């Protein structure tokens, strides 16, 4: 049985595990990034590879898949422009994270793309729009079982489509992005602008009062509707089998899948509105690691053929 290593790099931790698609994960762990700087980042990567080497032996790993936030330029492999979740990780190549003289085949991709790939495999659907709603909004598009990257690697940037002309400033520097309205952090920021009493509350505290606070309820409803409108546009163009929605804010109960499905379907052409399903992600916080393993395993198998 071939063993692959999957690494999912987030804004505050490295999640990793090894295994393969058919038999699943044999191991799954998290290393916390204590300080957000480049030295700590490389130190955590080193600790990760030391741990894998001591437990299973790097020589036994057939391939390494890495997922990370940020738009990755297809031609250079570099994470470019601004990277709000990992501001120090720009103009770097993921190869720099591997141990010196490591000859193990590796592949990398954006973390939301890998979430969509993992869900596509697990839910056995080949045409998938995968969305993560957390502090930001990530999106991956899977067409015919493979990640769709576009011409330059920037496909699927759903969080940064303009949903409100000249609207609120987004982390990316533009105005009116979906992420500024419909993400967990977007909701928090909008409420804080409305009334400073919300400014001290985290997302869990905000969601705890959504039944009793009409302002919170209204803002959540608006965020949900904007997400549904954006997804209905994307689905109208791409004709997916399924739209899969996950992420930390969804796990906390920010939006309702049934309501999203009904709002999306209302806006789709009649011919495919009943066919497109909207479902919750089922791989939870392991999706990035599983997607990274699927990515490198596919690459490994295509070379074997
Ligand atoms: Zn933006």
TrEMBL record:
PROSITE patterns: ROK. This is Glucokinase (Glucose kinase) (GlcK-like). Pfam families: ROK. It is an enzyme of class 2 (transferase). Belongs to the ROK (NagC/XylR) family. Its EC number is 2.7.1.2. SUPFAM superfamilies: Actin-like ATPase domain. The lineage of its organism: Bacteria, Pseudomonadati, Candidatus Cloacimonadota, Candidatus Cloacimonadia, Candidatus Cloacimonadales. It comes from Cloacimonas acidaminovorans (strain Evry). Keywords: Transferase. GO terms for molecular function: glucokinase activity. PANTHER family: BIFUNCTIONAL UDP-N-ACETYLGLUCOSAMINE 2-EPIMERASE_N-ACETYLMANNOSAMINE KINASE (PTHR18964:SF149), ROK (REPRESSOR, ORF, KINASE) FAMILY (PTHR18964).
